[in-house]
Amino acid sequence: MRDVAIIGVSQTKFGELWDVSFRDMITDAGLGAIKDANIEGGDLEAMYVGNMSAGLFVNQEHIASLIADHAGLTPIPCARVEAACASGGLALRNGIMAVASGYHDIVISAGVEKMTDVVDPTPAIATASDQEWEAQQGVTFPSLYAMMARRHMHEYGTTREQLAMVSVINHENAAKNPRAQFPMEINVDQVMNSTMVADPLRLLDCSPISDGAAAAIVCPAEDAKKYTDTPIYVKASTQASGSLALHDRKSITTIDATVHAAKKAFKIAKLTPEDIDTIEVHDCFSINGILAIEDIGFVEKGKGGLAVEEGMTRLDGEIPVNPSGGLKARGHPLGATGIAQAAEIVWQLRGEAGKRQVEGAEVGMTHNIGGTGGTAAIHILSR
Amino acid sequence: MRDVAIIGVSQTKFGELWDVSFRDMITDAGLGAIKDANIEGGDLEAMYVGNMSAGLFVNQEHIASLIADHAGLTPIPCARVEAACASGGLALRNGIMAVASGYHDIVISAGVEKMTDVVDPTPAIATASDQEWEAQQGVTFPSLYAMMARRHMHEYGTTREQLAMVSVINHENAAKNPRAQFPMEINVDQVMNSTMVADPLRLLDCSPISDGAAAAIVCPAEDAKKYTDTPIYVKASTQASGSLALHDRKSITTIDATVHAAKKAFKIAKLTPEDIDTIEVHDCFSINGILAIEDIGFVEKGKGGLAVEEGMTRLDGEIPVNPSGGLKARGHPLGATGIAQAAEIVWQLRGEAGKRQVEGAEVGMTHNIGGTGGTAAIHILSR
């Protein structure tokens, strides 16, 4: 199989985008990536779109062809791929596979979600959990992650303040990211005194409801310099599944799908966690920022809270996590997140991340999960 | 890239399956295919699931990992792919690509839809059309296809009786198919006198609301004889996109995505329509049984109605169409249809189709479309 490179990326501003329609939002992201890659739309041979639930959010399935039509890309083959909040990661992975295999030369992988057009997005989001065993019993995502957080506190002595620090660091970074939904700093007291959502998680532990889109263009590594002076190479692209329902797991403080996908990614890339200069992790709730660095292997299981408290994950720390602001502060339009993570890592590795630049970043990683970890997609990228 | 073979297929009975849950239905289909392929579940390396809208029909997204979990297949990578009613065709194509590329050796491609758990499936089905330009104006699928039928009658003199014959022939075949939703014969008078749905289309011109699932297992062609004496080889797997909304098309009596995907498939397979011994076409409404044989190239544009009237598409005709009973009479659980079509062709080419066997069938084809043709997926299979 061929090596693959990312030659162009783009992300819309994330937020409550009342003035942009679903199809315009994703087309804007796609055009941005096309421009960034120095190609023409007609060069694209296939499209994968990550989207969790346009059916429930905007009453539209069949979105990949819709987007191709709106963007003037027909008749290229295009598919929506879905694994809840990991849909973007899967879109990137399928695009990479289509190029690595030789099926196509230039492919666009995009992600999009428009979540603010419904009165209450909670029932739609709950469809990422196990409907029969979780959602129908009234369990929502904050409560599922609250159980994971409570158990982590019980097993490892993780503190409420450590959880808060995940959000504080995310907002520190988001304040330097013009595309972030919440580009302002917050402090631990503000998190600790914000509205209770599901004990122990409070409002400022939770990622927001967001609209947004992102896109990435991949091509064979050997061709990448034709289009850009700074191609970013795909060192590994992996994916794993795990049980949707929490009660089916050996432990609810470890996400097995993350462990499997990360191990496989390091093996394929012939790298270790020490080689990673920066990572975008899937911290839809603050506890997940701690689970992720443990499950991927940056710290021992149970030590994630302390690592965050001690500043390990800060922009100037040992392993800067979520320089973009993460799901908490950049925003979390479900299907777009996996692609936005890759876009951030591409900007970091190119040295184009402005005030949030991780100095000297040469190898980066993305970690995108669906639901409470029923799916995990991992990418390792390098200059 | 490697050649690929189908070594196992399965289909549940299609119908109103009140006593089977979504996850049990698709797991049944998967287990059937595993048994048919003479493999163990643990041999599967990846899964693609075609599904149009479990979100709207059973309030469940994130279905691929859910199924993997329920079937004991975690942590293999698994993805849902969606392009409305062509979702099954895309799942098959992505499974084939994953094997052809060398990413995986044994992959299961499945399709599933449970449509009868909602009071009114019409709004969910309408999300396959262009929401802003069609569905929100009150247009539903019968009315979209009615416009296509009316225009075809106007342009080419296609008659109401010819449309009826598409359904009559489908039911002739379904009567010989134990897995069909409506295994009984009907006559032209019954179609012509059935309830009007959207002029000129009547109830018996329309495919039903169905529950059902199907699965297919693919592996490298060079390994196929290890598992089965009758591997069925994939000669071409193609896909194309077109505009979702009818008003965006040059003509509403030609489905461009079908034309593109079919042309490409014949080119890749180095075959012509004359080489095809039998085909499963996507006749969600009777008019589509006529459009399909024209757009794929079995007959000249405008001559499809006459060909059907003259018996060309009958089981003993020149090109037997839908030996399974087609979408009309086998049933049409949206995401399952593309895989069920492939299963039928596999049975036909193996000579296992019982009373509906097309004598001496050596090369077969499937034609699966999404919406009114925003997506088309074509497969050519051979002994």
UniProtKB/TrEMBL annotation, chains A, B:
Keywords: Isoprene biosynthesis. Gene3D superfamilies: 3.40.47.10. CDD domains: SCP-x_thiolase (cd00829). GO terms for biological process: isoprenoid biosynthetic process. Pfam families: Thiolase_C_1 (PF22691), Thiolase_N (PF00108). It comes from the Archaea. One of its GO terms (molecular function) is acyltransferase activity, transferring groups other than amino-acyl groups. This is Thiolase domain-containing protein. It comes from Methanobacterium alkalithermotolerans. The lineage of its organism: Archaea, Methanobacteriati, Methanobacteriota, Methanomada group, Methanobacteria.
